[in-house]
Amino acid sequence: MNTKKTFWEKLQSAFTRFKPLKIITYIVLFAWSLTTIYPLFWVFNNSLKPSQKVITDSFSVASNPTLQNYVNAFEQINIGQSYLNSLIMSGGTVFFTLWFGGLAAYILSRFEFRLRSFIQTLLVASLLIPAFATVAPVSEILQSLDLLNTYWALILPHTAGFLPFTILVLSSYMVTIPKDLEEAAIIDGCSRWKVFTRVIVPVSRPAFATASIFVFLWSYNDLFSALIFVPQKDVQPINVLLSNVTTQYGTDYGLLATAVTLTLIPVIIIYLLAQKQVIKGLTSGAVKG
């Protein structure tokens, strides 16, 4: 029986032996978490104040909280439509990226064929290409296909841009899955498609969750592409709307804080729902010894 401890197990045992070090670590982590939590609380707190109150006293707790800023957000700047646009575009990007990325990762991780190493090298190399270098040709392609100012104007470029990362993340996880599971399913009469959908995908859920979170965040926060490919306001996502709040309504900081709060809600909810899978997907490769 192999009793050799991994690096993480040795590190954990070290923390267990030296309790003062463990206490100091928790204090540092708690202080670090405050640097993330407090800005979120600050923005939400100011969204419950009138704009003038935000200017004069932005760091105090809202004594008379009001939801008027949220009412104005939906009535004045039509944030509901922008919400829907963002969810459709980002959700569509996640769906197609995981669909095609999962199939490609399965082939690269479970099959031996010519040019396999070359394709993997190209995937890594493609991560070095800046997105700004592809704006002009992508814009021309979308214009020739009459896709500008549509949901596809962001879904297609985002899917193509995020596929290499998704394939690498999924394939690096799938390659660790024992082939015995796959062989047992084939013996039971499963086709390759059923092996992929009923064995590989369920086992790879942590990797899929990790990839989906990153892809959703990147697509949701991509302001540059949205400004170029969907200049029409009816189709613009919420991050473009957020950038226009100060130009349209001057110094309405209460409305701006409200728009920021509403923008962050989907990201926080999705991460809270999938955080266990994300952590498992990020650390699974590190604890295998």
From TrEMBL:
The way this protein sits in the membrane is described as:
Multi-pass membrane protein
**GO cellular component terms listed in the entry, alphabetical order:** plasma membrane
User: Where is the protein found, in the record's own terms?
Assistant: Cell membrane
The alphabetical list of record keywords is: Cell membrane, Membrane, Transmembrane, Transmembrane helix, Transport
| UniProt key word Transmembrane | yes
Query: What does the entry give for GO biological process?
Result: transmembrane transport
* Record bears the keyword Transport: yes
Q: Which residues cross the membrane?
A: 21-44, 87-109, 121-139, 151-175, 195-220, 253-274
What Pfam families does this protein's entry cite?
Answer: BPD_transp_1
Pinpoint the ABC transmembrane type-1 domain residues. 83-274
Q: Which family does it belong to?
A: Belongs to the binding-protein-dependent transport system permease family.
Question: What is the name listed in the Swiss-Prot or TrEMBL entry for this protein?
Answer: Carbohydrate ABC transporter permease
What is the source species?
A: Paenactinomyces guangxiensis
